[in-house]
Design brief:
Elements: E1 5-9, E2 12-17, H1 20-47, E3 51-55, E4 61-64, H2 66-72, H3 76-79, H4 84-87, H5 93-106, E5 110-117, E6 122-131, E7 134-143, H6 144-164, E8 167-172, E9 178-181, H7 183-189, H8 193-196, H9 210-221, E10 228-236, E11 240-253, E12 256-266
Length: 274
């Protein structure tokens, strides 16, 4: 009459007895909450940049936004239930399936392109990431001209950086470990490139600089900062140190931070010290 009764078995809670009116009220609240969450989900899906496809572990489409259906020239009901190989263009299915299985197996995100129209150079740029039960795919249209311009800009930037010298680029995972490093940086710190991969970036710095670096990296990777910069000393050849300016910015992965890019600018006026 006054509240749920817990029934125990050998001292451990086993069942809960409650009035039918309370049970009905709880169900009504649960149904209202479920309806509200469904409306929020639909609002988000229909207002995101690009289309959304959701597939199950068997790689069959379980949900499709109207934007995704429009991009693919189908209706949402026609997409739901079909294998992802039927929903997306037929080019490079082997690469796509390999990427999707990797997401299911590892829980990591993946990105790949599929040709949509060879004549116009239109492509689908797809980012796949783990979903509640399967994989979600963000689908966007990419145009060859835009891609060529981006590649040209990237090439020019790389040439300028090489001519400038004393600038190194490193990529970090969401855990702050090194996932990409250039051979020149590895040579400078006196470690084989394979040994640096997987290390925490802060472990490459002098001990006294690690707290500042760790805090800056954590702010960027948690999404609380758009970019951070600080001065530090790199450990080179064991006990030797060299001054550097370090900047870090988040690497967008869908709608979350998927890692970070670190730029290390060596101080030309700093001598290597013991």
């Amino acid at each position: 009459m006054h509240g749920p009764v817990t029934i125990t078995y050998h001292g451990r809670p086993r069942y809960v007895l409650l009035a039918a009116e309370s049970w009905d009220a709880e169900h009504a609240i649960g149904e209202r909450d479920g309806t509200h969450r469904e409306l929020e989900y639909q609002f988000l899906v229909e207002h995101m940049d690009g289309g959304l496809l959701v597939i199950d572990p068997e790689l069959k489409v379980t949900d499709a936004s109207s934007a995704a259906a429009l991009i693919l020239g189908r209706t949402p009901p026609a997409l739901i239930g079909s294998p992802i190989t039927d929903a997306l263009p037929a080019s490079t299915h082997a690469t796509m399936l390999s990427s999707l299985r990797h997401v299911l197996r590892s829980g990591e995100q993946s990105q790949f392109d599929l040709a949509l129209d060879e004549e116009s150079g239109t492509r689908l740029r797809i980012r796949a990431f783990p979903w509640v039960e399967g994989v979600a795919l963000l689908v966007r249209v990419s145009y060859e001209g835009d891609e060529e311009a981006r590649l040209a800009e990237q090439t020019a930037l790389e040439k300028a950086r090489a001519a400038h010298g004393r600038i190194e680029v490193i990529r970090l995972t969401v855990r702050g470990t090194v996932t990409m490093v250039e051979a020149e940086f590895a040579r400078m710190v006196g470690l084989a490139r394979e040994r640096i991969l997987g290390l925490r970036f802060v472990d490459l710095l002098a001990v006294r600089d690690r707290t500042v670096a760790r805090d800056a990296i954590e702010r960027v990777l948690s999404g609380r900062s758009e970019a951070e910069a600080f001065d530090a000393r790199l450990l080179c050849g064991g006990a030797e140190e060299i001054g550097a300016r370090v900047s870090i910015a988040p690497l967008a992965s869908g709608y979350a931070v998927g890692g970070a890019i670190v730029i290390v600018t060596l101080d030309p006026n700093t001598e290597t010290v013991q």
